[in-house]
């Protein structure tokens, strides 16, 4: 709904300019037909100009901005703290409510206008048609002539009206030139923009200008003095305000008489209409020009500075307004761009933070794996030393077993038991597992902590058959083998296998440790690279921020300068375009305009001099309009007193006559304000409201009203 309100404000602003420009420059000129075109064209422009926009694209060269840099300028906490609780009475809701309220009131106002127009059309259409012309109607309830669209309406007593031909010609001009259209348009604007008081003043000026047009047309073919007398005569019979009809006695009589006596304006003064051009141009470029920025990314070496030429002259106010508008738009858009980049930078910063957290998690996992591998190795060594060794059914500790000093060749079989199997066989001492060893039959058991190998051929050539088995946790043998090698070879093979197993475990631990170290190094290198890139881009952002701030400051200075020059030019235009003023005389003596107020109560009449008459009678040789006011004399005051006394006596006489008539049973005709009434209406009439009363009797009444007037006729005029 906001665009509707903006359109309404712009339209009413232009209508206000239309009225003020007329009051300042045009109202005293005699270009009445041109002024009508000015009003109609101005209203059309006021309605259409806010709908027309011009889009200008401005290319702005900028260096690429890095959104990552803002991750160091803003943190998550600062963004989360910008949480604003929304109120139900937001500006948007208020504007929407006002828009709906305005639309509702305006719709009712427009419907009311339509009702009034339809009612007026029906009223005129139902009036009696004159025998002279179908478009001429007779309104028995009206005291003044008026016109609307193609109809001219006259009062019932138009035949007795003085100078009825002038009145009829006046209204015919209104009809021929379609003046009702002007009145309907301005009345519709009043109902559409009912809140704008300037439209009431504008309507009065439009109506007055239409009367100027008719006055000018009538005086081309009739005597000016006679026409002015007719205007004064019908001044007292004005209709109540009906804004969409033209009446003969409407508008300001004084201004109409002054305009009739004004000398014709010179053609050079038509140039005043051109003064409206810079005003409309300034409005268009200030409010109807939309500037869009097109950003071009360039490198630091190739970047060209954005400059703006200020070639404003006093005669080119529209370019000043356009420049100020463009600079303001550029400042605003740069600010919005920086704000958007900041928000995007925060998102990128969060992503970088997530990457760092992931790398940290991987490093912790690798470290955990290394610790687990080390613990496993340590636990394996510990278990190997803590578990019991069972040799031919005798239980030994690891140190006792080592102390036996028996060579490997004396072992016939080895079983590694898990904790469950060892506990089942040996009780609590086997809770961590056990190692069972069976010696060869020929091995001599000394019982003193050592095995003695009594094999005669022991040393390299002896051949002995034995078996080795490795048992898993559930007691199942997973490795078992027999050999017919010599005892020395068997011992070497067993030692080699044990060494290979230890080397494999060492390689596994080293590989795990190297893997975690390598992954950690890769992540750290990646983070370091990102950090360096962010630092670099942060510097670019700071530099770009400084450039934006400098541009904003410079644009504000240039805009303020342009606005100042614009104000000076407008002031100069006003000073050079002041319209002609009046020269005032009171009883033949020239006075200042400020002194007139002290004479208002004493003024008797006003005269507008032509230049020739002013030069001849007053000796005034200037080019201004001369107004001479004549003050009341003692004789005038005495005459006014006599008139007042006569009027008082006349009213007393009328009151007495009316009372006498009421008391008698009068059977004649009664006309009150030219409308036939009954005797009952006569009896209820208040004598204080009677202005004139005329009684016709005998032949005078019969000649005018026929047989109905035989018993007499009473003609009464009352206060309206």
TrEMBL record:
Phylogenetic placement of the source organism: Bacteria, Pseudomonadati, Bacteroidota, Flavobacteriia, Flavobacteriales
Domain Peptidase M56, first and last residues per copy: 150-260
Cited CDD domains: M56_BlaR1_MecR1_like (cd07341)
Keyword Transmembrane helix set for record: yes
Gene3D superfamilies found in the cross-reference section: TonB-dependent receptor, plug domain (2.170.130.10)
Organism superkingdom: Bacteria
Coiled coil: 317-344
Protein name, per record: BlaR1 peptidase M56
Alphabetized UniProt keyword annotations: Coiled coil, Membrane, Transmembrane, Transmembrane helix
């Amino acid at each position: 709904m906001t665009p509707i309100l903006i359109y309404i404000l712009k339209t009413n602003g232009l209508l206000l300019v239309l009225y003020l420009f007329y009051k300042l420059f045009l109202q005293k000129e005699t270009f009445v037909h041109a002024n009508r075109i000015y009003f109609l064209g101005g209203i059309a422009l006021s309605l259409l100009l806010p709908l027309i926009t011009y889009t200008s694209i401005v290319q702005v060269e900028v260096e690429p901005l890095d959104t990552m840099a803002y991750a160091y300028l803003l943190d998550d906490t600062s963004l989360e703290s910008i949480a604003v609780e929304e109120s139900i009475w937001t500006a948007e809701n208020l504007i929407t409510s006002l828009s709906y309220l305005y639309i509702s009131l305006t719709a009712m106002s427009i419907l009311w206008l339509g009702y009034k127009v339809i009612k007026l059309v029906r009223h005129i259409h139902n009036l009696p048609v004159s025998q002279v012309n179908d478009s001429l109607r007779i309104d028995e309830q009206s005291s003044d002539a008026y016109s609307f669209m193609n109809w001219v309406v006259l009062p019932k007593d138009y035949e007795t009206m003085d100078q009825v031909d002038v009145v009829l010609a006046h209204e015919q001009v209104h009809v021929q030139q379609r003046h009702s259209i002007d009145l309907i348009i301005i009345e519709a604007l009043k109902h559409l923009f009912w809140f704008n008081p300037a439209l009431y003043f504008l309507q009065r000026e439009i109506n007055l200008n239409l009367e100027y047009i008719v006055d000018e047309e009538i005086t081309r073919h009739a005597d000016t003095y006679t026409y002015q007398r007719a205007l004064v005569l019908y001044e007292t019979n004005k209709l109540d305000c009906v804004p969409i009809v033209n009446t003969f006695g409407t508008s300001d009589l004084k201004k109409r008489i002054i305009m009739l006596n004004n000398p014709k304006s010179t053609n050079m003064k038509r140039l005043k209409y051109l003064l409206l051009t810079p005003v409309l141009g300034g409005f268009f470029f200030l409010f109807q020009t939309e500037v869009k920025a097109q950003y071009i990314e360039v490198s630091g070496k190739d970047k060209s500075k954005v400059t703006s030429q200020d070639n404003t002259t006093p005669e080119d106010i529209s370019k000043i307004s356009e420049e100020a508008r463009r600079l303001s738009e550029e400042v605003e858009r740069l600010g919005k761009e920086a704000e958007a980049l900041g928000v995007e930078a925060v998102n990128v910063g969060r992503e970088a933070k997530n990457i760092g957290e992931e790398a940290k998690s991987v490093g912790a996992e690798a470290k955990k794996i290394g610790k687990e591998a080390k613990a496993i190795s340590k636990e394996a060594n510990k278990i190997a030393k803590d578990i019991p060794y069972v040799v031919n059914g005798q239980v030994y500790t690891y140190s006792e077993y080592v102390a036996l000093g028996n060579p490997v060749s004396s072992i016939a079989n080895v079983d590694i038991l898990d904790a469950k199997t060892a506990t089942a066989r040996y009780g609590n001492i086997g809770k961590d597992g056990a190692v069972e060893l069976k010696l060869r039959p020929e091995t001599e058991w000394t019982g003193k902590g050592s095995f003695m190998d009594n094999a005669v051929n022991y040393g390299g050539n002896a051949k002995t058959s034995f078996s080795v088995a490795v048992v898993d946790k559930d007691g199942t043998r997973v490795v078992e083998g027999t050999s017919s090698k010599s005892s020395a070879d068997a011992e070497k093979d067993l030692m080699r296998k044990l060494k290979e197993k230890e080397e494999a475990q060492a390689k596994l631990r080293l590989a795990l440790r190297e893997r975690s170290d390598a992954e950690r190094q890769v992540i750290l290198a990646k983070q370091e690279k990102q950090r360096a890139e962010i630092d670099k881009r942060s510097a670019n952002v700071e530099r770009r921020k400084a450039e934006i701030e400098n541009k904003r400051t410079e644009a504000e200075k240039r805009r303020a300068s342009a606005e100042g020059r614009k104000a000076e030019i407008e002031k100069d235009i006003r000073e050079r375009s002041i319209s002609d003023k009046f020269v005032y005389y009171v009883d033949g003596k020239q006075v200042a305009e400020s002194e007139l107020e002290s004479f208002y109560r004493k003024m008797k009449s006003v005269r507008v001099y032509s230049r020739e008459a002013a030069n001849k009678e007053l000796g005034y040789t200037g080019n201004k309009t001369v107004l001479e006011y004549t003050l009341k004399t003692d004789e005038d005051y005495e005459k006014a007193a006599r008139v007042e006394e006569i009027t008082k006596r006349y009213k007393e006489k009328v009151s007495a006559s009316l009372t006498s008539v009421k008391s008698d049973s009068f059977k004649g005709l009664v006309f009150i304000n030219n409308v036939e009434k009954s005797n009952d209406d006569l009896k209820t009439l208040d004598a204080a409201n009677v202005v004139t009363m005329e009684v016709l009797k005998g032949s005078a009444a019969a000649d005018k009203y026929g047989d109905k007037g035989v018993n007499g006729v009473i003609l009464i005029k009352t206060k309206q």
